[in-house]
Amino acid sequence: MAASKIKKGDAVVVLSGKDKGRTGTVLQVLPKDGKVVVEGVNVATRHRKPTQQNPQGGIERIPAPMAISKIAVADKDGKPTRVRFETKDGKKVRVAVKSGETIDG
Are the C-beta atoms of residues 7 and 26 closer than 8 Å to each other? Predict the structure, then answer.
C-alpha cells in the first residue's frame, strides 16, 4: 500500500467546485473511495425527524466526503502545494514542493 499524500489533520485548500478557495482541516480520509472529509467544506444538510435519541429533530449539517483530487495541502502561507516524499534520517517524510518544508516530523 502506498503512503497517502494527504492525512488526517492536514490543513488543505479546495481547488475546484462550489467551495473553491476555502480552507479546512482533514477530519477523515477514505482511501478506498478516493475521498476525504474536510471540516466546514462541502456541508450537507439533513432534515431529521424527532427520535428517542434526538427528541428535538431539526436540521443537521454535516461535512460530506469530497474527491481527494479537488484538494491540495496548504503551505505555511495558506496557498496550495503539491507533496513529494523524501528520505531524511532514514525516515520517509512528506515535503511541500513549493517551499521545501517537511510537513510531518
Answer: yes
